[in-house]
Design brief:
Mean pLDDT: 95
CATH architecture of the largest domain: Alpha-Beta Barrel
Distance between the termini: 49 Å
Number of helices: 15
Shape: globular
Radius of gyration: 21 Å
Largest sheet: 8 strands, mixed
Helix content: 25-40%
Number of strands: 17
CATH superfamily of the largest domain: Metal-dependent hydrolases
Number of domains: 2
Strand order of the largest sheet: 3-2-1-4-14-15-16-17
CATH class of the largest domain: Alpha Beta
Strand content: 15-25%
Low-confidence stretches: none
Structural class: alpha/beta
Length: about 450
Amino acid sequence: MQTIWAETALLPSGWAEQVRVDVDAHGRIHSVVSSVPRAGTTVPCLLPAPVNVHSHAFQRAMAGLTEARGPDPTDSFWTWRQLMYRFLDRLTPDHIEAITALVQMEMLEAGYATNTEFHYLHHQPGGAPYDALAETSERICAAAAQTGIGLCLLPVHYEFGGCDRRTLGPGQIRFGNSMERFQLLCSDAATSLRHLPDDATSGVAPHSLRAVGTQDLTTYTDLFPSGPIHMHLAEQRAEVDEVQQHLQSRPVTWALDNMDLTDRWCLIHCTQMTPDETVRLARSGAVAGLCPITESSLGDGIFDGVRWCDAGGAFAIGSDSNIRISLSEELRTLDYSQRLRDGSRAALATTDKSTGRQVYDKVLQGGAQATGRASGQIAEGQWADLMALDTASEHLWGRSADQILDAWIFASDDRLVQDVWAAGRHMVRDGSHIHRPRIVAAYKKTLDALRDAI
């Protein structure tokens, strides 16, 4: 049994003082009691640690390499994507493992307990499968074994280069699988979790309406009857135009009218929705997976968060391209985007919860739902996904209850993250991952090998 004692902690019933959390040998919370004497590992402020619901880990290694404007005066997501395709053509399984470990380490240090890896780089350059079909999925799992992060592995189904069902081009050929081969890959990928702790899970991810046939999309919940299903949906205006041209409907409307969207689904980005689509999708029970830093970087647009929440929608946070991995900044960027669009303040606050508390609660709940992970609460039976903030910092000094979250998100940054546990594994101590030097050294070696890849 592992014991954590917090001066203050956020429980399902609200803030409590002098809280003792006992964690069993399997990484689940055994008991939670408040107003008890100090014992075990002592922390100032204990929070549930959220899930990162969307990551393409390999893209971390190209962060900072795509900010110069090329010859095209209309630089956009689509020109960035071409650079990304050139970069990934150089990646080997060893590179993928080293980059993923760095990403997962940074996620833990930012306060996330779980990495949901939307993984589509399956094959060799040129498109030939590796001898082990799920070779690169196995490398994601190997990275998780190094870092101790919780993992939800989502092999991505990518079959076509667009809604016209054109064959995959040179940049995409490493992603491609028919439905039959994709099902085999998913089975092999799930088997690769056997070397990880029991909290590791897998699901599936049809990439988008552009990359998977409509017949398969309409039957996805039958083809994969259990586990989470994630999909990109309505990220870019050009994407909306392409879907409208070929399917005679906007992406969100087509998905609502033709797919079995339930609480198993997490729809990523959704930055291009009409008000009616926003309300309808929110009421479907699906989670909106938001990545505000990447959505800002790529000019995707602004998620209609106020309308979504008013309609009872669930949302969660991810880091997508991993250009910067910062939980507090993702939350701040999400709320500030609403303020900038509407000319308001405290856009996502409610009458009984501050902005920071409301957003953090929603992210905890949405991340747990989107991955089927028993987390998001400091409560008996939940995985011990926990994060401690340093309330001795000048940024939190004198703050209490919801003010702690507000000051962390809006007045400081992830340097206040002191300790992080993933299913009871104490991987971040005093602000740093316990294996940081080794993971960083392997990442730097990979960057040296990839020099001038773009």
